[in-house]
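SEQUENCE, STRUCTURE TOKENS:
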Amino acid sequence: MDKIAQFVQKSNCNATTVAVFGAIGAAVVAFKALSFFKVLVDVFFRSGVNLKKYGAGRGGWAVITGASDGIGKEFAYQLASKKMNIVLVSRTESKLKALAQEIEEKYSVQTKIFAMDFAKGDDKDYQSLKTLLTPVEVTVLVNNVGTNHEIPTPFEEESDKIVKDIVEININAAMKMTKIIVPGMVSRKNGLIINLGSFAGLVPTPYLSVYSGSKAFLSSWSQAIGAELAPKGVVVQNVNTYFVVSAMSKIRRATMLIPMPKPYVRSVLGQIGVSGGASTPYTSTPFYSHAIANWLIDNVFNRAFWVNQNYNIQVDIRKRALRKREREAAAAAKNQ
């Protein structure tokens, strides 16, 4: 009888253990399902803060860096279409002049341009830009300018110039631009800072180590200043971006996961203050396919798996890029 009692007691204990772990498992699955459902609600049904809060249609100015092409150019168009005055900052003056004229004629807003090479990090350029911006009420800053490695490259083989350019353009430019503009936003207790981040900052990317590190910095820095500035009425939003068709991405064809700049920027401006697929504070992943991908990275497998995936992807891209260089060099030698 004692053995039977012990067996029954042990069976009950095992059944209780299974039930407890089963309940925990069900709770985890339910939590994951709810978090995924929230992502879908965010990207398909929720609207962000109206840009009128940040001066749209009321004389507010938006400053956009890297404004002459791609995503930056599209930010200029869409903010101007919402009746914001635009300051275009980029390297090529001729492109800026043409874009400014087009925006003024099409959207009946004011524009200012400032040509500077962010790679130089020239303090005189930043001081001149500060002087240009002093008379206007800047309510939106889009830190968009950025650069990347030419091809995936091991860190020890990367040129000093490319390393320097990535740090100067992707990190220092965002800090210097924000340092110029944020005091005015704080004094008015109103402002919006959009920092263009990257999935490379979400998951470390081997062979793009400096670029990946720069975007990880931007993510961490955005969260830190976001917490500092929120009580002062200034919103900081680091935008997690996967690939978008652009000159920098070297992608020319749009897919479900790789949008054109127009729908991508529309999603960013339409979901200010909405996290979308992002799980970190002061961050948004607004484009629907990017949001789902962000959720998968955060919730499926561990970070080591995704780093290894990035490694394999970049190794393959590097091999193809080197073969292309070899073909181009052979063709050039043949034509000499």
The domain at 43-315 is CATH 3.40.50.720 (Rossmann fold). The mean pLDDT is 93. The longest strand covers residues 85-90. The two ends are 98 Å apart (CA to CA).
